[in-house]
Write a structure and sequence with these properties.
This protein is mainly α and 129 residues long. It is built from seven helices and three strands.
């Protein structure tokens, strides 16, 4: 019995393929000249990995609505403080969130408007047909 294909395998098989075998050298040269540096692409890939976790997206979503301390984020998400702290550490390392100390409390907020834009652009892209 044949195993069912995953969505990714089906998409790869069903993707249209050029059958002419002709390389359009002018188009290739123009695109090669405009490609981003490998280091920049690697950094962007690492950023998208951080955004690839639904819990971290929930934290970003919560912080879009306002500054929160770790306890607040844990309460909003129904998670333990250590779990939230771990995700915030990852988000901070990726420069997506920043914090400020007020006595014994640490308040987190989004690092800048780019984080907001990336989040909303992702939602917009995935919501349209």
């Amino acid at each position: 019995m044949k195993a069912a294909r995953t969505k990714r395998e089906t998409a790869a098989v069903d993707a249209p393929v050029c059958e002419c075998g002709t390389v359009h050298e002018d188009a290739v040269a123009a695109v090669r000249g405009g490609l981003s540096a490998d280091a920049a692409l690697l950094n962007a890939a690492e950023l998208f990995k951080v955004f690839g976790d639904p819990t971290r997206l929930k934290i970003v979503n919560a912080l879009l609505l306002g500054e929160l301390c770790v306890c607040d984020v844990a309460a909003v998400l129904g998670m333990s403080q250590p779990a939230v702290s771990h995700h915030l550490k990852v988000l901070k390392a990726a420069r997506l969130v920043k914090y400020r100390r007020e006595g014994k409390q640490i308040f987190y907020s989004l690092d800048d408007e780019h984080v907001t834009n990336i989040f909303y652009q992702g939602l917009l892209h995935t919501s349209h047909a």
